[in-house]
Specification:
The structure is a single chain. The chain is built from two helices and four strands; from the N terminus they run E-E-H-E-E-H. By secondary structure, it is an alpha+beta fold. Strands 1-2-4-3 form a four-stranded antiparallel sheet. A hairpin with a 2-residue loop joins strand 1 and strand 2. The radius of gyration is 20 Å and the shape is rod-shaped. The chain starts with a strand and ends in a 14-residue tail after the last helix.
Length: 98
């Protein structure tokens, strides 16, 4: 396993489907939440000799990235303000559906 970014992973498996399933499981997302790039479809070889695993790069499609980024910036701002005011408080950010 090799991670190439925060929401992206490269996985290998005996088949493309197996590699994708492993990546989805590790990322904790469903197939409709990702973009899949097949790096290698693999090769069964002859009687298993010379076989090569399939390899995929799976990237999470981030529909809420801008909202999440704004929430993180807001949280950091509030924590800084509270710290400057020497107030001991915890800032929690939650997302609510409209």
């Amino acid at each position: 396993m090799e991670e190439t970014g925060m929401k992206e992973i490269i996985k290998k498996g005996k088949t493309v489907d197996e590699a994708v399933s492993l990546a989805l499981e590790e990322l904790g997302v469903s197939r409709d939440e990702v973009e899949i790039d097949v790096v290698s479809e693999g090769n069964k070889g002859i009687f298993g000799i010379g076989s090569k695993d399939a390899e995929v790069k799976v990237s999470v499609i981030c529909n809420d990235c801008e909202e999440g980024k704004a929430a993180e910036i807001t949280k950091e701002f509030l924590e800084t303000v509270l710290d400057k005011l020497q107030m001991n408080a915890e800032v929690n950010v939650t997302a609510e559906d409209d």
